[in-house]
Amino acid sequence: MKQRQVLVLSNLYPGKISATFGIFVKNQVEALRRKGLHVEVAAVKDPRIGKIKLLKKYFLWVLLVLGKFLLKGWRYEVVHAHYVFPSGYLGLWFKRFFRTRLVVTAHGGDIDKMAKLSGWIRKQTKKVLDEADSVIVVGEGLKRDVVEQFGVEEGKISVINMGVNREVFTPIEKDEARRKVSVDKGVPLVLYVGNIIKQKGLDELISAFGQLKSSYPQAELHLIGVPKNPQYQAGLEQKAAEREIGDIHFHGAKPQKEVAVWLCAADVLALPSYIEGFGLVALEAMSCHTPVVGSNVGGLSYLLSENCGVPIQSANVSSLAQGLLDVLSDPQLQEELIRNGEQRAQMNDQDRMIERIYDLYLSTKVRKYEG
User: Fold this and answer.
1) pTM of the predicted model, to two decimals?
2) How much is the CA Rg of the chain, to the nearest whole Å?
3) In the predicted model, is pLDDT for residue 203 greater than 80?
4) Phi–psi pair at 307, nearest 5 degrees
């Protein structure tokens, strides 16, 4: 039986420089390949920023996509673009010339940030959303934004998050996890996983942890993630030093299997983002049976609802500090969050999400291009 041909376009994908840059896209690609699809990828694999680096990597990416277009464009049955712009914009080439089915996934930043950079980008974002055969959004809040801000018909929008890989993010005994990450038993461990950027609420996290230390002087805060701007991380470290807040550790990026061990070792995951399309790491924590304290924004609002986590106000130090204190001081609350979080992880298992995307590939009807 002939394999169905799929091309995935993404401006985030792991590579030699970073094994975690857009890892969620790679995970989905590999899962789709296991379903029997022939999936090729044309993606940006360089996380580095700076004007020259940005121009170079996007120029090379466009050349790569152009090569796929000229040599194999007619073969692809589906082009799946991750991020509406710029990936979806490139995907329109295939739709226009080869009538390829175009599926785009909006992850949040493409709607909340990228589309607001200029009138031209907003116009192209709307064009992609209008012309795509199917639009995937990773959360209900993002679906509302796409409908209300861009007038996209609800019938072609599917809410499908990236899903959690429960073979990787699986609970292990806490003492064993602590041994592996070299953190002493009984030490209150607050964990953050994500990019080291201001929009993730890390200034507030440092301040809230400082308040938490008055109740738990032995507590440790560990941050795992890529510092997009090393100066920002240096500023956080200086802020902690000036306020004499100790036991704060930055680890840089780590492979998913190591992140899973850290999640199992932690007492609580803190995710105080200002905006969040979905918040996959919160779901990964739930899958590892670790309570989550996070901002009541975007996709996190859904993940933390129904007592699956502790929602707090974004950009609010007191709210964050109280949320962390509530979890650390209340064993009954911990048990409830772990129990409900496990159910949420089951509902959002990556395998279930992949089945829905696979069905979408097969059922998507080609819409007339109006470019």
Assistant:
1) 0.85
2) 21
3) yes
4) 60, 30
